[in-house]
Amino acid sequence: MTERLCLAGYGVAMTALQPLLRVKLARRGRAEPGYLQAVPQRFGRYAEAAPAHGWLWVHAVSLGETRAAALWVQRLQALRPDIRLLWTHSTATGRAAALPLLRPQDAQAWLPWDAPGAVRRFVRHWRPRLGVLMETEVWPTLVHQCRLAGVPLWLANARLNERSWQRAMRLRCLSRPAYAALAGVLAQTPADAQRLRALGAPPPQVVGNVKFDVPWHPDPWAAAQRWRQAWRLASGRPMLLLASSREGEEAAWLAAWQRQRAARPQPPLWLVVPRHPQRFDEVHALLRAAGLRVLRRSTALPAWTATPTWPPEALQADVLLGDSLGEMPAYYALADVALLGGSFVPLGGQNLIEAAASDCPIVLGPHTFNFAQAAAAALEAGAARRAADFDDALRQALAWCRDDAALGAARAGAQRLLQQHGGAAERTVQVLLQAWDAAPAPLPGGA
Fold first, then answer.
1. By the 8 A CB rule, do 187 and 207 touch?
2. DSSP SS3 for 414
3. Residue 406 vs residues 333, 400, 415: alpha-carbon distances, Å
4. Residues 243, 345, 60, 424: what is their CA dihedral angle, to the nearest 10 degrees?
5. What keywords were assigned to this record (predicted)?
6. Structure pTM?
7. Positions of E strands within 180-318
8. How many CB atoms are closer than 10 A to CB 431?
9. What is the pLDDT of residues 269-328, one digit of tens each?
């Protein structure tokens, strides 16, 4: 009874908050127009009838989850091209990242706001046969409505850090029934599996992290390497990367760099790549206000496939601002060493496996709880080092750049890291195909 009352109260609150979602979308849409696309879908309303039913539905909330899902989805499609995919997302970057993955028989929509009416309309409209939620996206109303409609929900590449587990336990009248109603869980690590089981999830299968199966793209990597070699010949300066930086990190990095740069006779060129595109202009203004000579990737450089010729102004620049999407592998391949964004503020870090796939040594800040297993494995392999703060990170990165033997060992360690931890995408596909074949046809009309 308590859990039913808790879910009912949650549903009332989420329904009442829907006007605030419209305000938020309008505000975000000013910086990222993608948020203004198909807004009624956020509330489970569709202009046309669904083109089919019986979808394999994949929910990837944002960019990282979409890229991770693609690693197993493409394997699944090679084995079973007849299966139609419905992609859902919550962010504009996630939605844009999935567009190149869509085949003519596939579809894409926003995940609805987790209010009963919106979710019910979503399930009735699409009538999926099987749902796969990526990593952490367990929403109480969504799981409840899918159970009523007979849609099995799997949580894939599942992770749950200690902080999130404690928060979920405080709200266990909502979280326990939601996790308990899942059809299955594919966990990244034994620690994730233990915490998920404690929340009531069905016994998780530990299959590893699919992000270790990042594909090797020799052409873009080789092109970026040519640009890096051309840079060293033209300037003689190292190139360091602040990768996927989050709000507050650029200012902290800048303060640390200003304390140290006077002591550097040959300062590096910094690549600064903010995590969120709506902050590109803000970060550019911050760097310019500090008196740094800044170039923007979008206007100063041609495509990486062009002949590597750095413009004269680049040779005098302090910072190249990476104001582009989908080029992080190239940025990693350009850099001698990278600093991992999201790890110098208590946000848990970004995906460091991308750096390993591009042979880029990386310095981690103190906060990597979102990627604890990957961080520990990278440190053990010698592909990463740990820093206490940005001052420490700058010292370590610059020292690393002066030691060719250490850099070579770190790059070899990055390759070992990928080899030792790969295979999760294939294991995920095999389990989900079995779940697909066992799933019943959707109920007529949904929930």
1. yes
2. helix
3. 17, 7, 15
4. 70
5. Cell membrane, Glycosyltransferase, Lipopolysaccharide biosynthesis, Membrane, Transferase
6. 0.84
7. 184-187, 205-206, 239-245, 269-274, 294-296
8. 16
9. 999 999 988 899 999 999 999 999 999 998 888 777 778 888 888 889 999 999 988 788
CA distance 138 to 59: 10
| pLDDT tops 60 at residue 109 | yes
Q: Who contacts 267 (Cβ-Cβ below 8 Å, separation ≥6)?
A: 237, 261, 318
Asked whether 360 and 338 are in contact (CB, 8 A), the reply is: yes
Residue 53's SS3 state is coil
Report the amino acid identity of residue 191. Answer: A
Task: Please name the amino acid found at residue 343.
Answer: S
Q: Do domains 28-208+424-438 and 218-421 have the same CATH topology?
A: yes
Contact call for residues 15 and 90 (beta carbons, < 8 A):
no
Contact in structure between 15 and 116 (CB atoms under 8 Å): yes
| Maximum C-alpha span of the chain | 72
User: Which residue, 433, 444, 445, is CA-closest to 81?
Assistant: 433
Cβ neighbours, 10 Å, residue 362: 28
Distance between CA atoms of residues 275 and 32, nearest Å: 14
Q: Is the predicted pLDDT of residue 216 greater than 90, yes or no?
A: no
Question: How large is the angle between the packed helices 372-381 and 404-421, nearest 10 degrees?
Answer: 130
Q: How deeply is 294 buried, as exposed, middle or buried, from its count of CB atoms within 10 A (0-12, 13-18, 19+)? A: buried
Closest-CA residue to 189 (of 152, 158, 168) = 158
Domains of the chain, residue spans: 28-208+424-438, 218-421
Residue 423, beta-bridge partner list: none
Radius of gyration of the chain, Cα coordinates, nearest whole angstrom: 23
The helix (run of H) or strand (run of E) holding residue 65 is helix 63-79
Q: What class, spelled out in words, does domain 28-208+424-438 have in CATH?
A: alpha beta
The rounded Cα 25 to chain-centroid distance in angstroms is 20
Pick 218-421's CATH classification: 3.40.50.2000, 3.30.230.10, 3.30.450.40, 3.40.640.10. 3.40.50.2000
Amino acid letter, 120: R
Active site residues: 65
Nearest to 236 by CA among 270, 267, 271: 267
CA dihedral 400, 403, 405, 410 (to 10 degrees): 10
Q: Do 34 and 95 form a contact (C-beta atoms < 8 A)?
A: yes
